[in-house]
Amino acid sequence: MADILPPADCTTMRDVRAGVDALDAQLVALLATRFGYMDAAARIKPERGQVRDEARKAQVIANAQAHARDMGVPEAVVGELWERLVEASIAYELAAFDRR
To answer: 2, 10, 18, 60 — which has fewest CB within 10 A?
Structure first.
């Protein structure tokens, strides 16, 4: 496999696509770890009603938006992505809770 170049060093669409594909694989690996934490939360929380925590959800999204702002990434886009990620995580955790 070819070396993955930083975005600023890409000169062809092949370079760009290789970087995106490699990064996507890393993102999925990170998501697998994140969902592992949802499994842990489902195991640790004593009651199903504790799975949805709106205050924590808001905090997680705000944290992601702050990181985006610090890195110069569109804050609104990150907020929308994290809204979907957190809702998917809650659904996953509820299912994990129900399986235990």
So the answer is: 2
Tell me the pTM: 0.91
pLDDT band at 1 (very low <50, low <70, confident <90, very high): very low
pLDDT of residue 2: 58
The answer to whether the beta carbons of residues 64 and 82 sit under 8 Å apart is yes
Q: Cα angle vertex 66, ends 26, 18, to 5°?
A: 25
Tokens (6 digits) for 24:
């996507």
Q: Which residue has the tokens 């490699």?
A: 22
Neighbour count for residue 98 (Cβ, 10 Å): 10
Mean pLDDT of 38-61: 98
Helix axes 13-44, 75-99, angle to 10 degrees: 40
Please say whether the beta carbons of 51 and 45 come within 8 A. Answer: yes
Distance CA 70, CA 63 (A): 11
